[in-house]
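User: Predict Dihydropyrimidinase's structure from this.
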Amino acid sequence: MSTLIKGGTVVGPAGAVPADVLIDGEIIVALFAPGTAPEGPEIIDATGKYVIPGGVDAHTHMELPFGGTFASDTFDTGTRAAAIGGTTTIVDFAVQRTGEVVPDGLAAWHGKADGNCHIDYAFHMILGGVDDESLKAMDHLVGSEGITSFKLFMAYPGVFYSDDGQILRAMQRARENGALIMMHAENGPAIDVLVKQALERGETDPIHHGLTRPQELEAEATSRAIWLAAVAADCPLYIVHLSASKALEQVRHARDLGRNVFAETCPQYLYLTLEDQLGAPGFEGAKWVCSTPLRSKHETHRADLWQGLRTNDLSVVSTDHCPFCFKDQKELGLGDFSKIPNGIGSVEHRVDLLYQGVVDGKLSLGRWVETIATTPARMFGLYPRKGVIQPGSDADVVVYDPHGRTRISVETHHMNMDHSAWEGWEIAGRVDTVLSRGEVISAGGEYTGRAGRGRYVKRGLSDYLL
Ligand code: DUC
Ligand code: ZN
Ligand code: ZN
Ligand code: ZN
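Assistant:
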């Protein structure tokens, strides 16, 4: 079956051009100057709208085990919400839990995801312990499983944490097998000291989560990761969920030196602040507990992050979608902020939230598409199958209405969460129609996809490997 998306403006990193997009089956087969396409195919009218590659969210955590509970979105609920919000591929983090072997962690993740996803999905692997066995498993994942990126944690001693020696070994191995190392860059042992001291002073409210994770400890870990990667023969390094000006400075400096260092930020750091959390009554601030934490509006973070996106010192916007309900989940931290599960859920809103940046004059149209779709696809070995509208690519396409508006609320969102960190936000733009591999799965607010239609995608090596 063939479909023509007609009358719209196709947007990619290089800018916007009026064109009609012809899809045959699951694949984009041609672009035509307006009005020059052959007659016959089914028409999707995109007049007055943007036609963009489906979003690629390279950082999600469906069902992540954390602090004695699990992230509240399953692969079913989470990928459905993603799809409705214009994201057609996620890269989720499979987890090797500490004490578990990598293949068991991976099998468990396929067990959660396979047959349940509404859109295509791929995995990174969190290494919960770096040793001879996991390093060997890393080679196997890169060579045979389509998993070409590995996340390590400098935070959370005793849980996911790797020490500097383990990090160096994993980086050296990545340099050999072509993988990318993703880093949660916060100095965990130092944070643990601050947390303990705060609790001893009786400071138990959610706000102390952020206050005990100062940006200096993010910057220090970011810098340390950058230098460890240098020692590992310039292993490519990707800093996840970068939140703060001083950490960005480290990345910018490394990139100015020509180092193969990349970073992502997330919508919450571009828009939300510590003061949003402070303003919430009582324990409600727990809704904004995430790591890295939200930063103060009185400092330069948000403006610096937007600038970093423009200058490409920040290459990607992912959500770090890690939803927990308030009831029974966030509430685990009543009386002790350190027991609040860390995470905010936004997988449904990333495309819209970043379009608001275009409207606000903070991001160009081309850069919008590049940071939410094209670069994540290239960074994580999904390109040109994903992240671009060109002949031969999967027909993952979003028709985006720049004149529409989106209101975010727990009443209307599709994520499995009993609250929204973005409650009441009114933003410009609206996802109109979503195609995943040629199939219309969402149109005009009506969802027609189904669980199980999403396929596991084996990824190649990063385009950014040198
Ligand atoms: N880091 C993440 O990337 N996600 C959730 C929690 C965390 O610390
Ligand atoms: Zn295998
Ligand atoms: Zn992290
Ligand atoms: Zn994460």
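Residues 59, 61, 320, 322 surround zinc ion (ligand 4) (CB under 6 Å).
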